[in-house]
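As a point of orientation, let us examine one representative protein, giving the amino acid sequence and backbone structure tokens.
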Amino acid sequence: MMKYIQIIYETLLVNYYLKKYEFGYITELYGSKYGQLNQEGDMEKEKLTRLLNKIDKVCFWFFGNAQCLHRSLIGFKLVRKWGLPAELVIGVKKFPFGSHAWLEHDGSVVNDIQTVKESYIEVLRIGGQK
């Protein structure tokens, strides 16, 4: 299973990408590198939950203010590497203006609360058919 040091490395990498490159480049990079599954794996729900909890902990204590986009990009990359067809979703809302990123698997939010889909209008999906 994924070790914390690997997740810390991924967090540093995502933080670097977000500071150095434009958002469009990052979504293109992650979409092209991790958007296509070579083979579908089966990750037990318990393992997925443990991985996402580790990512949450690392991002919470990360000195670079890692938020939902960090968590979702890291989760998307690692979960897709294991062959799980997760999708990275980004949504916005008008009032008060805000944006948010989350992961979905089989139409369910896996790294946030389910109601996030009702609070935000989807503007971008990576790794899905939509």
Observations:
- Residues 4-126 form a domain with the Beta Polymerase; domain 2 fold (CATH 3.30.460).
- The first strand starts at residue 87 and ends at 93.
- Helices lie at 4-20, 23-34, 45-61, 68-81, 116-119.
